[in-house]
Amino acid sequence: MQPYFREAERELTVRRRFDDQRCSIAQALEVLGDWWTLLIIREAFLGVRRFADFEARLGISKNILSQRLKHLVTHDVLAKIDAGEHGPRYEYELTARGKDLATVLTALRQWGDRWIYGEGNEPLVLLDRKTGRPIPRLRIVGEDGEPLRGSDMVPWLRPDER
Amino acid sequence: MQPYFREAERELTVRRRFDDQRCSIAQALEVLGDWWTLLIIREAFLGVRRFADFEARLGISKNILSQRLKHLVTHDVLAKIDAGEHGPRYEYELTARGKDLATVLTALRQWGDRWIYGEGNEPLVLLDRKTGRPIPRLRIVGEDGEPLRGSDMVPWLRPDER
Predict the structure, then answer these.
(1) B52 — contact with chain A (CB < 8 Å)?
(2) Between chains, do B154 and A126 touch, taking CB under 8 Å as contact?
(3) Residue A2 domain-assigned?
(4) B1 lies in a domain?
(5) Are B132 and A156 in contact (CB under 8 A)?
(6) First CA to last CA across chain A, in angstroms?
(7) How many CA atoms lie within 13 A of A161 on its CB side?
(8) What is the extent of the structural domain holding B42?
(9) What's the number of CA atoms in the CB half-sphere (13 Å) around residue A98?
(10) Which of A41, A121, B30, B98 could covalently link to B77 via disulfide, CB atoms 3.0 to 4.6 Å apart?
């Protein structure tokens, strides 16, 4: 097998074991917590903001939902705000940090679209308002906008991490 | 709160509840299983292919690793191949379906880089071999290559899903 990154294997043999405590993927997964969490975030992207609506749409127990929402507020992915005009009424909204998960959700959705449902069977399609056509797949590109393959990239560990 | 997609809230009120069984994100998460799974895939991208190497680098128990690898082979994310010249020696390699998770891992890594470590402290940077500079952040763009914001996109549920 070719490693995805051409020189990765050779480089990694001279490095110490990758510490999960210093890995953005592992740390992102720490915050995202579990699959429910990402589905809650999906609903928030679709405009859901009230506890009862998350509960009804996800079919999730009050208890688990409450824990997960608290977790997301603690990690500044959602903000809990009082939207009540006559007495308190709480809503959850995506923070800047939460909105920046759009690429994570899009990457997951497009992968599922492609490999599980297949073209023409995607359950939900995001349309570009301007053209009315589906948004293109996310691509890893260079500064010139040209797509990069694995062999075009070199993983580099920050020196204090070696 | 503004929903991420401008018209999402109005549109969703006329739709039936989102069935998790028909959602690419939920289904992708089914396959990816749990966080260990994504960390195993991360290692595969970095060139790891042998059971003992996954085990040593992840600090994961043999039992869990074995289960997760089996799961990933069943779902065609990894292929188990006999790479032995003198007697069997098994290795795991990313399939096309597995390699296509590059955007998912990149999106997660870049989110963690930005919101957990911050610029200049990213534990691992992917460099563009041609320029020697970090690869740009993934962006959701239209067919013309221009970045799209939430309000530029309209979620559309396939008719048989309504």
Answers:
(1) no
(2) yes
(3) no
(4) no
(5) no
(6) 25
(7) 20
(8) 8-161
(9) 28
(10) B98
- Whose tokens are 């292929």? That residue is B79
ipTM of the complex: 0.86
Per-residue pLDDT tens listing for chain A (162 residues): 455 666 554 444 434 344 455 778 888 877 776 778 889 999 999 999 999 999 998 888 999 999 999 999 999 999 999 988 888 899 999 999 999 999 999 999 999 999 988 988 888 899 999 999 999 999 999 999 999 999 999 998 887 655
- CA neighbor of B113 nearest in space, from B103, B132, B126, B101: B126
H or E element that contains A154: strand A153-157
In this structure, is residue A1 part of a structural domain?
A: no
- Among B37, B84, B138, smallest CA distance to A101 is for B138
> Which among A26, A126, A154 has CB closest to B153?
A126
What is d(CA A33, CA B133) in angstroms, rounded to the nearest whole number?
A: 31
For residues A3 and A11, is the Cβ–Cβ distance under 8 A? no
User: Residues near B63 by Cβ (< 8 Å), separated by ≥ 6?
Assistant: none
Q: Which residues of A, range 11-30, sit inside 8 Å of B by Cβ?
A: 12, 17-18, 20, 22-29
Q: CATH code at B75?
A: 1.10.10.10
Contact A111, B104 (CB under 8 A): yes
Q: What total number of domains does chain A contain?
A: 1
